[in-house]
Amino acid sequence: MFFHRQELQHAAKPDKPDAVYARKLQEVLGGQYGEITVAMQYGFQSWNAHLPGKYRDLLYGIGAEEMGHVEMLATMIAQLLEKAPLGVTEGAMQDDPAVAAIIGGTDPQHAIVAGAGARPVDSNGNPWTADYVTASGNLLADFTANANAEMQGRLQVARLYHMTDDAGVRDLLSFLLARDTMHQNQWIAAARELREEGVEDLPVPSTFPLGKEDREASYQYLNFSDGQAASEGSWASGRTPDGKGEFEYVAEPPAGVPAPPPTKPDVRLHGTTGMPGPVEKAMGTAQDALHKE
């Protein structure tokens, strides 16, 4: 069960209203790498975890913290919208809140839909979607995805930090940057520990028999670009990170195989699916009736 304590993990109070910045802050709330995404991602990973103990508890703990970050950002956005001017224009256009909001760079739905509150959307107003969530059931794959989510989120928060001079906003962003630093390190450490303990290994999934894989192609760097500098990287020669092979650089990929000829369905009888569609069935019924007459 979940309990809610009516306090914030960190202060979330701006120095002054700023509806334009409130829109920008929506990105790290409801964007692809925002707090809603990681809260739901870690939640579903924990609920789907088949391995009890420290790894699932890690997911539970960070997931619960991220839900608190959702609340902090929503609280900050609501305060940035409180008594904020509708736009930056003057005159007749300022009398129309929607027009003024668009010209001024704010989100008109903050006022029209949410009543000067935060919304589960990104900075362009696109609704948050569960498509952003990664929860595969494979801990090494998921922890690697989590590290990426924290890296992308911290990158966006760092950019937002330099888009405002508001000391109150910067104070919250500074805290979120610190927590992203911690979480990046936690997911990387957890992924390393999974491998050290033999729970999972590279390549993921490690339980698939390598003998059923086309091993000749497993470690070939097939260069499909006209640039050659990538051959200088550690990914082009030497031992592979999974310790199971050696990289091979192939400057020009081998020739491909001919593509199969295009299919030629009889659309008069079967439509495009290969099975009689509703129109074809109706035509067939009409034809049968004519034959009976």
TrEMBL record:
InterPro entries: Ferritin-like, Ferritin-like_SF, Mn_catalase, Mn_catalase_dom. Pfam families: Mn_catalase. Transmembrane segments: none annotated. Residues 229-293 are annotated as: Disordered. Residues 255-264 have a biased composition (Pro residues). Belongs to the manganese catalase family. This is Manganese catalase family protein. The lineage of its organism: Bacteria, Bacillati, Actinomycetota, Actinomycetes, Micrococcales.
